[in-house]
């Protein structure tokens, strides 16, 4: 497995964090197996050499490495003279991560559904960071927080570590995006967001000048949902805005959004939000 995974519904629980340096190149990474602790290392100068599970890593300036709990890792040679690095040692709440879907960052509407929180974010075990100074400043702030005797220090540290890792995840997304494919999907998303009704496959294909079978397959692969489901979520988002502004009852909103009848609208609304529109209105507005 060449990725490190975090569930988005739980915090990385910080045990220790710090900043270190090796002026003369005297250190090697310790030979150890940490049964409950994950390790994150980010190098700001020089180079660290580590081996885990038979894979050797050269962690150079501007790169990071995750070392997973219950795996033996060790140093293969001395660090470069002048090497400087940050580290985070953290626990992870017991949970089964492997079967969880990857967090879908492309098609989030203003509504946040329950299944969003039952997903994960995945990082390459070893990777580079583009905005090195910014991320180093974030880690320095984390170290300073660790050194302060604050009343809620464990919680504040873990929240700050979670924020750091989510920014690292965003950094990786920007770096690793398949530019052309994401450009097409983003065009589809913009087209559907700006439409007042659910577009047909023919309308989408004609507007973008591409085959719809290819577009729908690409959309599902990149976003994890069908074009129809995404368009329905957008319509329900509009319906909720109309309810908030008291722009009509269920039947009137259903008609305004182009649904064939209020019963079908109610079925789609419940499928998207988990509750019928009447229940949502009563819970939200009364």
Please, could you describe this protein's structure?
The structure is a single chain. The protein contains nine helices and eleven strands. The protein has 286 residues and is α+β, with helices and mostly antiparallel strands. Strand 5 and strand 6 form a beta hairpin. Helix 1 (132-146) runs antiparallel to helix 2 (153-176) and helix 6 (227-244) crosses helix 8 (262-273). The longest helix has 24 residues, at 153-176. It starts with a strand and ends with a helix. The model has no long low-confidence stretch (mean pLDDT 87). Pfam families: HTH_18 (PF12833). Residues 186-283 form the HTH araC/xylS-type domain. InterPro entries: Homeodomain-like_sf, HTH-like, HTH_AraC, Tscrpt_reg_AraC-type_HTH. This is Helix-turn-helix domain-containing protein.
Question: Can you summarize this structure?
Answer:
It comes from Lederbergia graminis. The protein is an alpha+beta fold.
Q: What's the average pLDDT?
A: 87
Give the second-level CATH assignment, the architecture of the largest domain.
Sandwich
Would you identify the regions where 5 or more consecutive residues have pLDDT less than 50? none
CATH class of the largest domain: Mainly Beta
Strand order in the largest sheet: 2-9-4-7-11
Strand content: 15-25%
Number of helices: 9
The radius of gyration is 24 Å
Secondary-structure element order, as H and E?
EEEEEEEEEEEHHHHHHHHH
Return the structural class. Answer: alpha+beta
Number of domains: 2
CATH topology of the largest domain, what is it called?
Answer: Jelly Rolls
Measured distance between first and last alpha carbons: 50 Å
Shape: elongated
Largest sheet: 5 strands, antiparallel
In CATH terms, the superfamily of the largest domain is: Regulatory protein AraC
Protein name: Helix-turn-helix domain-containing protein
Keywords: DNA-binding, Transcription, Transcription regulation
Domain HTH araC/xylS-type: 186-283
Organism: Lederbergia graminis
């Amino acid at each position: 497995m060449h990725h490190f995974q975090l569930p988005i519904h739980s915090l990385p629980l910080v045990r220790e964090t710090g900043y270190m340096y090796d002026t003369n190149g005297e250190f090697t990474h310790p030979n150890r197996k940490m049964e409950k602790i994950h390790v994150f290392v980010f190098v700001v100068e020089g180079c660290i050499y580590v081996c885990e599970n038979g894979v050797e890593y050269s962690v150079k300036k501007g790169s990071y490495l995750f070392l997973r709990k219950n795996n033996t890792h060790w140093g293969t040679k001395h660090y470069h003279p002048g090497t400087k690095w940050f580290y985070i040692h953290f626990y992870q709440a017991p949970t089964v991560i492997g079967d969880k879907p990857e967090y879908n960052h492309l098609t989030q509407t203003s509504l946040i559904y329950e299944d969003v929180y039952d997903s994960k974010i995945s990082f390459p075990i070893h990777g580079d960071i583009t905005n090195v100074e910014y991320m180093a400043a974030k880690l320095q702030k984390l170290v300073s927080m660790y050194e302060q005797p604050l009343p809620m220090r464990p919680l504040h540290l873990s929240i700050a570590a979670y924020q750091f890792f989510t920014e690292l995840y965003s950094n990786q997304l920007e770096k690793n995006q398949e530019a052309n494919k994401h450009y097409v999907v983003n065009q589809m998303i913009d087209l559907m967001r700006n439409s007042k009704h659910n577009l047909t496959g023919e309308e989408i294909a004609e507007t973008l000048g591409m085959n719809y079978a290819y577009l729908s397959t690409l959309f599902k692969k990149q976003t994890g949902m069908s074009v129809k489901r995404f368009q329905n979520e957008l319509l329900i988002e509009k319906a909720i805005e109309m309810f908030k502004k008291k722009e009509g009852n269920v039947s009137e909103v259903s008609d305004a959004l182009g649904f064939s009848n209020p019963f079908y609208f109610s079925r789609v609304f419940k499928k998207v939000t988990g509750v019928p529109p009447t229940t949502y209105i009563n819970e939200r507005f009364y």
